[in-house]
Design a protein that fits this description.
By secondary structure, the protein is α/β, with parallel strands linked by helices. It has one domain (about 5-275): Aldolase class I (TIM Barrel). It is about 50% helix and about 15% strand. The chain has 11 helices and 11 strands. It has helices spanning about 5-15, 30-40, 50-55, 60-70, 85-95, 110-125, 155-165, 190-200, 215-220, 230-250, 255-275, and strands at about 20-25, 45-50, 75-85, 100-105, 130-135, 140, 145, 170-175, 180, 205, 225-230. The strands form 2 sheets. Strands 1-2-3-4-5-8-10-11 form an 8-stranded parallel β-barrel, surrounded by 9 helices. It has a 3-stranded mixed β-sheet with strand order 7-6-9, with no helix packed on it. α9 links the parallel β10 (about 205) and β11.
Length: about 280
Amino acid sequence: MALVTTKQLLLDAQKEGYAVGAFNVENMEMVQAVVAAAEELQAPVIMQTTPSTVKYADLAYFYANAKVAAEKASVPVVIHLDHGSSFELAMQALRAGYTSIMIDGSHGTLEENIAVSKAVADACHPSGVPVEAELGKVGGKEDDLEGGEENPYTDPQEAKTFVEKTGIDSLAVAIGTAHGVYKGTPKLDVERLSGIRKVVSIPLVLHGTSGVPDDSVRECIRRGICKVNYATDLRIAFSKGVKAYLKENPDAFDPKKYSAVGREEVKQYVMGKIRVCGSGGKAK
């Protein structure tokens, strides 16, 4: 089927109490792996690219990969700009055909975040493309994205005001997760999440989920998370497969051989996280 947007997928997830897995992809094999996992479990799925990923190749390259994969799939597939770093990049993604856009203005002041998030939402909505924004600061560092340390958590009342003033479709919240690899077990403020859910009606998003215990993710979903982002662990899985193949076959020179092993590792990882999200069998 053709690429779809996140709008109805997240509303369905919100209504039925599960989450849609959102997986960052870096190459063709990872795109294939994510869609294959979703097909096998009959789950809707979101593929994402960050600013540094599209800088490495191009928005059009990743869109083309996702478009072909979606057209061959029997499940709903989304291509989403993750952590869009500027209004200009968000508009480039919109023009390229991306079916979901995130604008991350969380590193500016609240007023600046509101202004850029509203501008992106106002520009995308006429085309039927939903917009995600972030309030609070998810910690850690991934790609060229660095989380802040001061006052990092999302304030529920600020979230209510933010959503009302921006008109966004989903909100990424900061409750103690971080991008990249965790040094210990993350401690999530799930009560804060429940507080946000009470005053914000749109779907909520959890970032920095690679390395978060599955039971913690399930609890966040129970408290209102409708979209769960995974990135670092997909890279680790792909690299694990490639390294294992090259260790056993040091004279290998055909990229298809070792990339196929990396692809299978990513597929198995994604299937596991789809099960955690509870989205298996939810393809419509």
